[in-house]
## 1
Amino acid sequence: MRPFANSFSPFSHTFSVNSLSLSLEKNLSELKKLLPSEDIFHYVFQTEDGVSCALLYADGIVNKQLLGDLVARPLSRLNLKRELDELPEKPQKDGGRVEVKLQIIRRATLFPELKEKREFQDAVKEVLDGNIALLIDGISVILIVGAKFLPVRTVMEPPTDVAVKGPREGFIEDIKVNMALVRKRLKTPDLRFETVKIGKRTDSSVAICYLDGISNASVKDEVKEKLKEIEVDCILDSSYIAALIAPHKHSIFKQVGTTEKPDVFAGKIAEGRVGILVDGSPIALTVPFVLTEDFQSSEDYFVSPFMATIFRAIRFIALVIAILLPAFYVSAQLFKMQLAPIGLMLTILSGVKELPLSPSLELMVVLLLLEILKEASIRMPKYVGMSLSVVGALVLGETAVNAGFLSTPTIIVVAFSGICLYTVPNFVETGSILRWIFLIVAGSIGPFGVVLALAFVLYYLLATDAFHAPLLAPFCPFTPRDMRDAIAKYNMQSLSKRPSVFGSQNKTRMRFDGKKIKKEN
Amino acid sequence: MIKALRAVFARGATDKNSELTFRKGAPAAKPQVNCRQLCFFAAFFLPVSKLLEAPSLLARYAAGDLLVPALMQYLLQTLALALLLFVLSRLDKPLLQAIADRFGQWTAKIICFLYAAYFLFSALLPLLDLEKFVYAAFYDTAPTSFTFAPFFLLSAYFCVKGLKALARSADLSLFLFLFPFIALMAMSVGQTDFTAVLPVFGEPFKGVLKGFSATAPHFADVALFLPLFCGYRYKKGDGKKIVASYWAGAAFVLFFLVVFLGLFTTLAPREHYAFIKVAQYFPALGTVGRLDLLFSYFLTVILFFYGCLPVLYTVEFFSAGINSDKRVLPSAVLNLALLVFVFYFNQRYNAVYKIFENAYPVFWAFSVVIPILSLFLLLKKPKMKKDGGRVETKEAKDA
């Protein structure tokens, strides 16, 4: 656990916090002073022999059923004095008496998850985390009852990563459930979770997940180090962590892998990557990340390698088309007509000859329209989505063409480019930015600019490393063995070694043809 | 924005120290370049430079015998490369460090400055060629003179990223060179008259010799290996692989020359920027458009990298000469100067070409003679007496 840092405390103002006393009243008032919010409730009751107890909890995030059945009711029936008298050996010192009392209470509550806290701040953090603080008169210790019951949605198929074949479970917003989903798939003692708390206000749990003996220790240490360095107000989603740990802060390219599917996450962990789960986020992070991951789908591993290769090649070609087609379309019209067949070029030219906008401006307008429609269709309520499609497709598209404001080929090019981009859903943001860059460059200096920008992007990618792995691996540095699961997908027997780019300590992952796995290192 | 630019132009974490270092007593740095990358560099990166102006030059001087001067160039370069690799196989330290240890720091500095000057000089004609090529290949009508200026942004970026990134670009050249080259050749061979190269030695040998000397700037490859060798440690068997890869690259070029001559025959001397033209007669292109241009554009990416290469080497050798790890300022100044040069001399191409046509001794000196002279590194360093007098080495005593 991250040590409680006074310089970066979750409290917006400082308190002169007293130490815990034997008086329940004093302890309770101190806790109420630290937690003045109206959703923090307390309930005072007495044991059978009249010892006062109090329960303090945040409303809505505790299991009240458990609280009543396993804590309040047994305690109200407890006769602490009688229990103490019945002991064969009576403790002489006060400290000993407290310990014995605690043991009796622990036994009485029947609750498996009980922690002792001797500082108010620690108790406050637990209450805010959804646990219950149990205070007992005459005992200067706060017992924390782990009766957290956060509202969570059920495990379901993630909308961003739908698979026709293969597992359909997806991560949810609860880190414990997510950890369980991973544990369900990797039933090995080597699977380790290390949890840290990040966020001044949110105090979010962040779990580093790795397979001991398989993941690269230096990557794991780097992730831990980077997480330790984070001092931030709120962590509301894993994307905050991804942005904060990324080595190249101003890059438009992703440097941390993301997935919503536990099977994909487990697969990546088993390859030697390090995973990060964040409480409150259904998106898990993995590092190191290489660009080819975006072209891979979980389904590739559930269909024949030939089909997987075809799917990946289609995604790759579609992405190239999505990014470069608008740029080359503009270049062909403005600078190099030979780029398109003469018949097609004549058709295009006849369509655009009376347009008021230049080809590049026209394409930018249509592309902007596409981006607006995309953004609106995601944000607007579903029941108006149909109207939006009608307005977008018919009113804006058809009418604009009829009015002579836009040309049909331009709309076809943008629509095709837009569809192609969605074949690689994880690359949509970056692809969209790149498409704009290439389009602007094409409109300014033509195909030379496009090729130059392409050279620049490629050189940037090949020179960039993140978490000890080059972004363009396994193409660059060229690693023939890792190429078996890049664009082309070989059969499972050929993937007997873990990808070398992740620097896994144990390189072999499969036994076949009677060969035993050689333990390396 | 400035922060973002600074981040983009920052050297990678692993590239903080230059691979070209020769500080006295400095521990040997981790090799930044490996044998595979050198092989790819030789086979897929270097040939692309010979597909631009060299074919028409060779055809101009040697006509049907254009393969002969090209072969002579390759043999000469292979000799120098093999000797250099032999020297590397006997050294247990980086090349520049070995020179500094054997002949002193100042000798190493002088070599650095000499090579910086050489690479700066050798960058001039290729840049003008590249500019002309860009105008011919990417535009229907002549664009403004400053259209080529953004190239120097790439060049500046190339310079600050160092040799490790360059070595990785050699990896990428496998895909960017091989597939487009095969596609272009596949489109071209159907129209090629392979008998155009026959008979061999059918032209006057004087023309062959002239072609040999005039194309020296295009084939001075061994000099381009030198900086990479400074970040590389020789392993047993690497020499054979690198020389074989160099000949694989040579095979691509020689095959291209045959196709080029077979396609254009007597018009060949006037067909500049050959690789964008060789596939244009492929019958299907009339229907689908100039698809071959897309393949040519992929090859052009490597050509752009190649255009940045001498500029990067100039910055690297200059920085090594002044023992500095800073790259941004020298690369900015150099690229700005080259931009001015290109802008000023693009109308005076013939004057620059004339200089380069007769500058073959310079190219042979730096790409052949000096690498061969590296054999002196293998001589034992004479031990010095405490009083400053020389003593004989053990070998000399035995003799």
## 2
Amino acid sequence: MFWQEDVETLAQDKLQELQLKNLNETLQTAKKSQFYSKKLANIGFLKNLSDLKNLPFTEKQDLRDAFPYGLLSVDLSDVVRVHSSSGTTGNPTVVFHTEKDLREWANISARCMYTAGARKTDIFQNTMGYGLFTGGLGFHYGAEKLGMMVIPIGPGNSQRQIWFMKNFKVSAAHILPSYAVRLYHAMRDSGVNPKTDLNLKIFFIGAEPHTEELRREIQDLYGVKAFNSYGLSEISGPGVAFECLQQNGMHIWEDYVIPEIIDPDTLEVLPDGQDGELVLTTINRQAMPVIRYRTRDLTKIITGVCPCGRTHRRIERIKGRTDDMMIINGVNIFPVQIEKTIMNIPEAGKNYIIEITKQNFMDKLNVKIEINDETFGGTLEELERLKAKIQAKLKEETGVSPNVSFVDRGSLPAAEGKAKRVYDLRNEKK
Amino acid sequence: MPYHLSVFLVDNKPGKLEKITKALDENKINLRAMSLASAGDFGVVKLLVDNPEKAYEGLKKQNLTVTKRKVTAVEIDNVPGALHKIICKVSQNGINIEDCYGFLLNDGKTAAIVLEIENSPEVEGIIKTLGLNILDENKLYNC
């Protein structure tokens, strides 16, 4: 049932004791870095966990400004690995790991997968990108720690993915939700029915915010249980929070991080159950602890006890990011609202992108959806009906009247890493 | 029953139809007849070809969205009023025609009228009462 029963079922008061102790140790470690030696100069020993809310936040920009070594809290010779998130503008953010950091990270990754039902007898195909992106290596070492046979295939090349799944009777896979949809169509084209021809049972899906509707769709397509995964490279990577068999919220590992939910405008800490931005403090990392890191991810802490027996609190599926909110003629829209709407229309294709353009000084929301053989009946009337239906449902959900268009399968940009769904073209010259 | 192919045409833009004709050319498919209907920014192309199975695979390989749709093809004399007779009969029976086009046969002596009709298998019987010849697959695809 449990990977580490004593830790996973530790009573909340004991868990908080542990958190306070580890938080104080972490603060001491962090102060060895150039960045926190200044930022936390006046912070002494914390007597209560609630004192955490008086500490300053750390932002993504701080990590960029401190490039490359400003947040490093140990001697460089003790660092054994660096990961980096894509820096499209300015410096990338880099994250350092000691040997112990990697061990702890592998352990919580293993715990995540075990929590979702994976066992050492499983054959695991890791379709996430290896390299600087944390999705691949993070789960790779976790899966090895758990004892599964790992196929480190990496992303892309659908035919090869299918070949391995078939020949090695792969039972568990780590996959981007957008790629799962794409791979399914590749299977259909090759005459492979994942439900009868393959041995897949568990999918770990993450790295992209996705909806409950897309999860169900993936489960239906493949006949698997798909578990939502949460993580971010600044904290280490995937494995920070994970769903248990209940599939009702992700247990955030409170021996690894301390979660807080804040109001992104007032920056006040909100009680459990209220929607806000997730703020994380690492309490089990050496090379680069981060204190009150603003994730920009919007969620809430689910109140109540989980029937699975784990005491670590759960966060709800990520609703969006404070920085991916689209403002269309003054209306706030999150990409997940659009995904949810599309997923709820069975005859609509499941691959889509959102484009925002400007026409005559007005913002225009354009949704492009791939059409596929299952949804294309062959008549113009059907397509017009479907288009009108999608338009109406999107308007209902978002309050904005979108432009819906259909595109051929395979004509949307394929995702190697995270699927890029939103293209804001408002500032581009035609 | 013979069928034609219905191809989804995205983005009514130069070069889109070319993708289809190129796929036909590369697969040595002969086009018997075609029709194109568009609704603003997208459209549907219907293709009647000599080897629909091969054409279907060839188009799909280009990532085009294709479906097979059954058709009823009737041979009529190439004289005024011949089509009118069929259409009257079909409409009298309350049958809706989804799509219709024609092409000449036998050096222009007769013509093939291709009707796409959904959910009305009785249409063939009705047309036969007019004493007209329903073209079979071989004749429609090849003659």
## 3
Amino acid sequence: MKLQSITTGLLLGALSLSSAGTITVKGSDTMVILAQRWAEAYMADHTGVTIQVTGGGSGVGISALINGATDICNASRPMKASERESLKSRYSSLGVEIKSAKDGLSVYLNDQNSLEGLTMAQLKDIYTGKIKNWKEVGGSDAKIVVYGRENSSGTYVFFRDNVLKGEDYVSSMQSLPGTAAVVNAVAKDPLGIGFGGAAYGKGIKFAKINGIAPSAETVKNGTYPLTRYLYMYLRSRPTGEMKQYIDWILSPAGQEIVTKVGYFPVR
Amino acid sequence: MNHKTSLIFALSLTLAGVAFAQNDSVKTAPTMEEKVTSVEGKVDGLNESYLETKGTVDKLAKIKVGGYIQAQWQHADTNGGAAGGFAGGGFPGTSNQRFQLRRVRLKTTYDAGTSQYVMEFEARPSGVVLKDAEVILKESWLKTFTLKLGLQDRPFGFEIPYSSSAHEAPERTRVFQTVFKDEKDLGANLEINPAESMGFLQYLNLKGGLFTGTAGYNGNSPSAAGTGDEIDSTMDIIGRFGFKAPFADLGLAIDGGVSYYAGKVLAANDSLYQMSGTVLADSVGAFVKNKGKTFDRNVMGADLQVYYTIPVIGDILGGTSIRGEYLSGKTIGTLSGSMPYGTAGIAMAERNFMGYYVSWIQNLGPMFQSVIKYDVYDPNTDAKGSDVGVAANGKLGTNDLQYSTLGLGLLYYWDANVKLTAYYDMITNEKASTGAFSKDLKDNVLTLRAQVKF
């Protein structure tokens, strides 16, 4: 009887802890504006719920998920096998992956750059340091200034895995803390090149990749070579308020915000 | 000039000065363009400073320092605690409770991408012990092969490489504490973990290498009594072939592997005790001189880990894992136990052994975990309990009895760094025919532990 009481108490305690009214969201800087818009819109209709959104990068968000410091992790890349192992070790769970939006990872050029596009091979060579001058890819005779993201960023990892095919970035790349900073740097630098989410592309122009520009159509049908999903990760299948929030994100109302922010809906 | 005139003159000069200054400031006020240029210069300066700082920070980021402290209070049923001291070392013979610093570790890693330096120390009241010292080389083409050189975990089974800080039960099971004392050995180990881009191969892994087979002997790795030096001119082979089968859509993952240890042990004494029927007999009686000869030490193992989020219940409580491991083989120890044989020059004892464990870990929300673990270790499968204590059976002793342990525990993760554990070990020994071991000893142990990890 005593054992039963203790067990019941523990279970109730655990349940109350997992169904608290505050949902914390942390991770991808690429997704931080999108996540804030979602949270604002959801909280406006659900006054009893508080959703706290912070960035820091996909890697930081995944670490927070593993450490129990956040309920939801936003990531602009899939979780690595080693990260799944950590989650498995601590929570006996592989985690739950939710594809919440699509993004065409864009390559930014300064407006004054005469180039309209690059091939994937040229892009790889620029970011690995094999091509150093714009004239090697049909541009003016000037040094290429390479901008990128920090290594805690999911965008950094996605670009390295899918464009550089796992090779290392050129050491002269200037790593900036956030896609907005990359856009700003390229906008100010006529010789600059950078990459990041489509939603951040203001004041610069998007390079065509293999002749295809990132657009709703090319991202949706997958013809744009740098199409990727934007993910949300949870430790286990969502329940209660968390489930309602995730369901709302995937509903037409949540996906409409995806479009407004500049990304592409998954449904 | 009187004072009044002087004051008026000075005041006039001051006012005139202020007026000129104001006029001058109007003339030299910077234009908006100049201000923007100035701010741009400052921003460029800050950017330059940031890039310089970033270079330094990037270098420092390659150095990782981590560690943990496990402080605990334990209560045993009787003074001296559990037989063999498998719940964190033996209690003093005059006490049944104690405070203890079970582990105090500091680990430094320098990660240069394709190479890593790893060094880990354990600080104890008795001194500082080296736990890990590894040179790790990673190839950058396939991102699949890793070579580890130095003092490291033996690549065998699941419990050995599973960090002491991550274990849900306070200690590894009795069979591992005996057969693979201190988990570490000195050697070279090749690990093959196919990259995620390699399709089906990514679910398989292989690790194995050559080791001295002596690093954990007669103390801690490598202690003054067991320096870890090679002494028998033969290397021990240790390896594990494993698999990982994730079924993310089902909330299920199944991992496992088979392991093998093939080693040699150099005899430092002519006597070798071996089982003959129900007798642990000395070969010297048959005029065999063993000193200087090497003898086989073989262990086979299989391990399985199942992780599952039970529908509905698991969605609320969290994941469940069930882990099990079985190993058997032949140990070369001494009459006083099956710990690995050392260099002290005493008689050897060869025994066939068997051991296994099954554990069930259930998350209870994000912060609590419950654990139930049952393990069995039979250090001499050729001897029954009733054979022990019989005068005719030669040197058979209490070290040939089988033990089983049922452990129940509750864990609380205070935050990302702190883990609190309450764990109760219920230990049952096989009954000998006579003496204190003819009944179950009073040797259960309660452990209350706080771990801080960074």
